[in-house]
Amino acid sequence: MWHDVRALNATASSLVALVVLACIGSGVWWLSQLPMFSLRAVTVESMYQLPLRHVNELTVRNGVVGKIRGNFFTTDLEGVRATFESVPWVRRATVRREWPDQLVVEVEEHEALGTWGEDGRLLSVKGDVFTANLAEADDDHELPAFTGPKGSEKEVLARFTELRSLFAPVQLAPMALSLSDRYAWTVKLDNGMSVALGREQDKDTLKKRVQRLVGVYPQLVARLQEGRIDTIDMRYPNGLALSSAALAVPDDVTKPVKPAKKKPNQPNKTTKQT
């Protein structure tokens, strides 16, 4: 090898190249550590240019900046994104560098549709379950209540949207929707009425049952007059069952009735004919 001039030249060239690259790398690293590249600002903006309702820009920025490590070049953008997405009400965040010493964070807020389960979580209009202050969520209107097995959030949301449209012709709106562990549906309406819709046999099962109820609902209300319908069971193929305060048995009917006293037998009267 030592007598091979070409091999020696190639080895020497490689060593020189490695040294040059090492010097360049060291220079870049030294430049990147200069104070002028320290992060001096983190700007929080709305992702869709809409006003942020629940995410306070100043509070979020001050709470997150202390967790950011590195400077303009070395900051882990994925880590910063994950930190912002851990903030209540933040659904999604994107982070970009802005020369020479700033990070710009765009956030998308959750929009709460209702509550989910019994542990104080919220369901968004996009079917995401998240944790936030309930007092901040229901400041505009009463939130519908949703329950269902784990992983059924988007299915429950889709059914809620469908039911809201189906009950609209009789001026009723769903205020609670429950999907049991056996996948049976129950909806509670804004007039306090609870409707058992049962399990879906096909994609149109719920639609047909609700449409059948909507078709006879005005007649039911007219027949009961002042009585309020408490529950309706629509799981019957060709009918329904309901309970209502108007159909309750009065208290005096449930009391035992004393038998009437028998009168003594009277002799039969006969009419004589002349």
Automatic annotation (TrEMBL):
Record's keyword terms, sorted? Cell cycle, Cell division, Cell inner membrane, Cell membrane, Membrane, Transmembrane, Transmembrane helix
Signal peptide interval: none
Residues crossing the lipid bilayer are 12-31
In terms of Gene3D superfamilies, this protein maps to: Cell division protein FtsQ/DivIB, membrane protein fhac
Domain POTRA intervals: 37-110
User: Which parts of the sequence are annotated with region: Disordered?
Assistant: 253-274
Which terms under GO biological process does the entry name? cell division
Q: Which InterPro entries match?
A: Cell_div_FtsQ/DivIB_C, FtsQ, FtsQ_C_sf, POTRA, POTRA_FtsQ_type
Q: Which Pfam families match?
A: FtsQ_DivIB_C, POTRA_1
Could you tell me where this protein is found in the cell? Cell inner membrane; Membrane
Topology relative to the membrane, per the entry? Single-pass type II membrane protein
Feature: compositional bias, Low complexity: 265-274
Main localisation, per the record?
Answer: membrane
Q: Describe the subunit structure.
A: Part of a complex composed of FtsB, FtsL and FtsQ.
Q: Which family does it belong to?
A: Belongs to the FtsQ/DivIB family. FtsQ subfamily.
HAMAP family named among the record's database cross-references: FtsQ_subfam
Q: What does this protein do?
A: Essential cell division protein. May link together the upstream cell division proteins, which are predominantly cytoplasmic, with the downstream cell division proteins, which are predominantly periplasmic. May control correct divisome assembly.
Q: What is this protein called?
A: Cell division protein FtsQ
Organism equals Massilia varians
